Amino acid sequence: MREAVIIEAVRTPIGRRKGLLSSLRSEDLAGMVLREVVKRAGVDSALVEDVVMGCVTQVGEQGFCIGRQAALIADYPLHVPGVTIDRQCGSSQQAVHFAAQAILAGDMDIVVAAGVENMSRVPMGSNVKGTDLSPELTSRYEIINQGLSTERIAQKWGISRQQMDEFSLESHSKAVKAQEAGRFEREIMPIKVVLPDGSEKIFNTDEGPRRDTSLEKLAGLKSPFLENGQVTAGNASQISDGAAAVLVMSREKALALGLKPRFRILARSVVGSDPTLMLTGPIPATAKILAKAGLSLSDIDIFEVNEAFAAIPLAWLIDTGADPQKLNPNGGAIALGHPLGASGARLMTTLIHELERTGGRYGLQVMCEGHGMANATIIERLD
């Protein structure tokens, strides 16, 4: 029986909005991780049969099939195609799914799944600027922004502002500790950037984690969504820039090339959920994938649940009963940042390296997505 295995995974450091990556074009940023992932694996890019690139805001530099453009920029041979997909925040997690599915179907043996978003250069929502939602949609569903959705989730699950701020502070604390311990060094590719004064800098550390934040500072932030609301910039993910790539192969091809499979993609799931609450999909997606894999929550060593807003993983913890000590051990998007189309591959890259560092066997990644969806993936470390 065919198996889809992960050979290599790499990401850029995540840049803050208008930070060190803001001077790099999105296509160039995506090309960097495509070049690096095959280089690290020692694989000839001519063997890659497809590049599947997640990207949410497909306009401007991120339009015109950035997946294909990035492959050309990375000097992949002309015969290597590329495609760009949008599953909202889970776009590059879906890219990993599509790569695995192509391999399991026998259509391909080597696929690069990747994602990119430079939100400094291509603002979120700019691809729908000047466009209203269809009355055919709004007559059927109440469509509100994600901040308001999160306010309703917090109210429904009884999650307080204090709990959200405490979760956010912990995310920063865990990320800072991970940085100080060098846990991200293996997964990050250093990037040379040009500073405004013309000098050059090697950028190799995520810009998002804040060492100086506190509950007092977080409590002082106001909600942009509701008067006296609970959701603030402090307990939500950061607007960020970044890219990541995952090299997926059939086990047979990897062994034929003399490569060691590091992880098996054990199970995949995707669900639709209430488009008004929008961000609750990780709860049913988790139940679905555990059933598909024949595993229980206690079997999972690490959970990576995207921190789009603090209320999302908190609601997930309440409903699933998962061990909070296994959740996002090195921090999440609140501290590290959330470059939309890159985040799925970024979480997968971090999950892979943390399972290897700790010796864990199973990892589960799940992400909420716009319009009410969620992807979940379970990977298994191979000895």
TrEMBL record:
Pfam families: Thiolase_C, Thiolase_N
Organism: Desulfosporosinus meridiei (strain ATCC BAA-275 / DSM 13257 / KCTC 12902 / NCIMB 13706 / S10)
Keywords per UniProt: Acyltransferase, Transferase
Intracellular or extracellular location(s): Cytoplasm
NCBIfam families per the UniProt record, alphabetical: AcCoA-C-Actrans
Occurrences of domain Thiolase C-terminal (ranges): 260-381
Name under which the protein is recorded: Acetyl-CoA acetyltransferase
Thiolase N-terminal domain: residues covered: 5-252
Main location: cytoplasm
Family membership noted in the UniProt record: Belongs to the thiolase-like superfamily. Thiolase family.
Matches recorded under PANTHER family: ACETYL-COA C-ACYLTRANSFERASE, BLR7806 PROTEIN
Catalytic activity, reaction form: 2 acetyl-CoA = acetoacetyl-CoA + CoA
UniProt entry tagged with the keyword Transferase: yes
Active site: C89 (acyl-thioester intermediate), H338 (proton acceptor), C368 (proton acceptor)
GO cellular component: cytoplasm
Gene3D superfamilies the record matches: 3.40.47.10
InterPro entries from the UniProt entry: Thiolase, Thiolase-like, Thiolase_C, Thiolase_CS, Thiolase_N
Keyword Transferase in annotation: yes
PROSITE patterns: THIOLASE_2
